[in-house]
Amino acid sequence: MSNEILKKIDKILIANRGEIALRVMKSCKEMGIKSVSIYTESEKSYPHTFLSDESFSLGMGPLSETYLNHEKIIEIAKVSGAKAIHPGYGFLSENSVFAKKVTDAGLIFIGPTPESMEIMGDKKTSKVEMGKIKIPLIPGYHGDDQTEATLKAAAVEIGFPVLVKASAGGGGKGMRVVWKEEEFSDALASAKREALNSFGDDIVLIEKFIQNPRHIEVQVMSDTHGNHLHFFERECSIQRRHQKVVEETPSPALDENLRRSICETAVAISSGINYKGAGTVEFIMDADGKFFFLEMNTRLQVEHPITEMVTNSDLVRLQILVAAGLPLPMKQEEITQSGHAIEVRIYSEDPDNNFMPAIGKIGHVGAPTLNGVRLDSGYIDGNEVTIDFDPMLAKLICWGVDRDSAISKTLHSLDEVIFLGVKTNRDYLKRIVDTKPFREGDTFTHFIETYSELLRPVDLEDREVAAAIAAFLADSQTENRVSLTGDSSWSRLQGFRNI
């Protein structure tokens, strides 16, 4: 099959940066495909710029002139001889205009069709389409009449609390929970203003606000030969400001019947819109196990590695196969889950200071040592962390034979993957994973707010701090004696809080 792929795609330009660019490169190398990276001038020392087969500078300037510059990226692809463009996630990954420009330029876009992006990229349109194929939807209003009177009447009919949600975009922008009728007008105006500023579109929809829901998503993959498959679910309920923080699979909330039902519903959606490529169907599930369609992300997700861990799949490889026009090389019954996987997102931020972003130079990046653990990061020793890009430094992914094992590996490995020189949320992630509610699988989208007191730091006693410093200094003095093994005090710097 490799020869068939190389006939269509022998070189790929990766229209992204950091860890996702490195992730795509890895699959390219294993498939014998050349990779082309792009970078800004401030990123010359970042690994995605020199681990590809070729790299091209985007210059300097705002994102609109670099990673969001359609014409520049397509021109680089042509000059480099790339046959296809992989957008990763974020940036241009769900931009239907860019996808069409890529295909119009005679290149292959590794992703769904622009038509699928447009249908599923707009929350209002996607809800209408899902209603046509009888997919369960949260009770709500998705109509064209956007007058305040109509929207308010719909909210009253649905029953408070309701969620006012921008139709375009995501990340919690243009979203307001309204608990009482008298609060509706102000919340609507605020949501519309934010939506217009963020997305250039102030259209909203109204939905019943489901309290303490779980966020369950299903990984799907479709080819152009009529095959629509799922790779099971991921639980992504632990979020902060609608951004995922911890993900795991399988979901501890699903029994086999519910798992089968939600996965089959996701496949019905991808089949119903004749989807192509990788996608994620997201659902909200209430306390009674009823699930409702939320949205579909028409790209590879940040959290895709946990699915790869439990299904022994390479989702990027499958994306490339589909883009080359080849059929998926497996049937649904051949895709099984094994063990349990957890992913935590390591951010350069201070959770104990209102999650303030952190910047600085990374002195050392620690590496995990346990089997079944991987650290996906776009940073190496000496790289600067700036405010120019997303604050996510890395993703720690831990696989275990069961959930308890995966939790233990996550807690141990978070001590190992230090980012010396920059404040991170590692200790905060440990607090989340080590709580009794998390260990018992009692997770929901307001977990962090509900257990905010439980997640506060516990100050070390003076004697503990003194002992840790003394041990580190003593270890540093012996560095020369262990240098022949490649070991050093840096590699054994574990358990230090908030480094």
Q: Uncertain runs with pLDDT below 50, 5 residues or more? A: 478-499
CATH topology of the largest domain: D-amino Acid Aminotransferase, Chain A, domain 1
Gap between N and C termini:
46 Å
What is the average of the pLDDT values?
A: 91
Structural class: alpha+beta
Helix percentage range: 25-40%
CATH class of the largest domain: Alpha Beta
Describe this structure in words.
Residues 478-499 have low confidence and may be disordered. The protein folds into 3 domains: 2-110, Rossmann fold (3-Layer(aba) Sandwich), CATH 3.40.50.20; 139-208, ATP-grasp fold, A domain (Dna Ligase, domain 1), CATH 3.30.1490.20; 214-450, ATP-grasp fold, B domain (D-amino Acid Aminotransferase, Chain A, domain 1, 2-Layer Sandwich), CATH 3.30.470.20. The protein is an alpha+beta fold. Strand 1 (11-14), helix 2 and strand 2 (34-39) form a beta-alpha-beta unit. Helix 5 (96-104) runs antiparallel to helix 6 (114-121), helix 6 crosses helix 7 (123-132) and helix 13 (403-416) packs antiparallel against helix 14 (426-433). 35% of the residues lie in helices and 23% in strands. The protein starts with a helix and ends in a 17-residue tail after the last helix. The strands form 6 sheets. The chain has an 8-stranded antiparallel beta sheet, sandwiched between helices. A 5-stranded parallel beta sheet has the order 3-2-1-4-5, with helices on both faces.
